[in-house]
Amino acid sequence: MNAEIEKFHFEGGEFSERSRRLRGNPVLREMVRETRIMASCLLYPMFVTEGHGIREEIQAMPGQYRYSVDEFLKELTIVADSGVPGILLFGIPDHKDACGSGAWAEDGIIQKALRAAKREFPRLYCVTDVCMCEYTSHGHCGILCGHDVDNDRTLTVLAKTALSHVQAGADMVAPSDMMDFRVAAIRQTLDRNGYADTPIMAYSAKYASAFYGPFREAAGSAPSFGDRKTYQMDYHNRKEALKEVLQDVREGADIVMVKPGMSYLDIVREVTDAVDVPTAVYSVSGEYAMIKAAAAAGYIDEAAVVCESAVGMRRAGASILITYFAKELAGYIREGRIG
Questions:
Q1: φ and ψ at residue 310, rounded to 5 degrees
Q2: How far is CA 90 from CA 13, 16, 132, 175, 190, in A?
Q3: What pLDDT, on the 0 to 100 scale, is given for residue 89?
Q4: Which of 17, 188, 302, 309 has its CA at a distance of 20 to 30 angstroms from the CA of residue 99?
Q5: What does the alpha-carbon distance between residue 3 and residue 254 come to, in Å, rounded to a whole number?
Q6: Rounded to whole angstroms, what are the CA distances from 136 to 101, 133, 174, 231?
Q7: What spatial distance separates the first Cα and last Cα of the chain, rounded to whole Å?
Q8: Model's pTM, two decimal places?
Q9: CA distance readout (Å), 26 to 33, 169, 202, 220, 251
Q10: Nearest in space to 138 (alpha carbons), one of 179, 97, 174, 90
Q11: Which residues are catalytic?
Q12: Cα–Cα dist 294/306, whole Å
């Protein structure tokens, strides 16, 4: 049947451009590629907990674990060998109280993990999440006044926490609480204590998202009442994200972040176009869990989807990808499956 169909012949030369000319050879396709991804742009989120000999898989996030410090150090060998240059660290304390005092304790879980990591892996770049939800008995991201989070009292403990992380060896701090003016409070506190060169990566456009569910299991940080919609952003809003980002930059943020990733790539692009600082995107626990579940069911090719979604975030404008697939992505880059 196809042999009976004659080729169409154009008259004149006005249709001389053929886009498919640049797609016909894999070498050429890679040569003209617009978006490239490198292992150097990856950060790997990790969870550390008190105890010894603990490597506990997170049920909702197959392949991700809670590590005691000794097991954490073993895993860092794998991370370093993979080519991933840095981690984003979350702590799970044994004890929680109303003000989250474990967040800034000298012998807190993050502080112990940082000192051990920098001793054994001095070149590994360590970023710490600065928030109260993992440390408070009520699971909210700050100090309560009744059933509301008191913004300005929370600034004090966030600044103390960030300072304690840097003193323990953090290379960068990343406040994720979404309190107003927390970047300014942290910046001033670090500067006053001799850490003017320590950068801040602000969770600037952090939406109140259903995609965080598995993380709350991982970190034990679900609020005991209510929700976080009074401080995290409404996912209907676009302009508000730009306002939050610009405010954080004015307060001293060196990097801004959009979280989650997959459903917010329009925000990533607008933020990247609006500011002159790098943009990070956090591909969150729910995104990871969905890909893992679909791959386990045989519905998708996990590696192909991981690569495509990572490139999508880079194409949207992200300079830094925070992803639970960081080790795998570094491997795919080495293999030439993505680049």
A1: -65, -45
A2: 61, 56, 11, 12, 20
A3: 98
A4: 188
A5: 62
A6: 8, 6, 18, 16
A7: 41
A8: 0.93
A9: 11, 44, 39, 46, 46
A10: 97
A11: 206, 259
A12: 12
Residue 220 sits at φ, ψ, to 5 deg, of 60, 40
Per-position DSSP letters for 16-74, written without gaps between them: ---GGGGTSSHHHHHHT-S----GGGEEEEEEEESSSS-EEE-TTSTT-EEE-HHHHHH
Q: Which two tokens stand for residue 323?
A: 């992803």
61 vs 16: which has the higher pLDDT:
61
Consecutive H or E run containing 149: strand 148-149
Q: What is the pLDDT of residues 257-291, one digit of tens each?
A: 999 999 999 999 999 999 999 999 999 999 999 99
Q: How far apart are CA 326 and CA 328, in angstroms?
A: 5
CA dist 84 → 166, 315, 325, 333 (Å) = 21, 20, 10, 11
Residues 245 and 255: their CA atoms lie apart, in Å, by: 10
Separation CA 64–CA 55 (nearest Å): 9
User: How many CA atoms, within 13 angstroms, populate the side-chain half-sphere of residue 158?
Assistant: 34
With tokens 């933020």, the residue in question is: 271
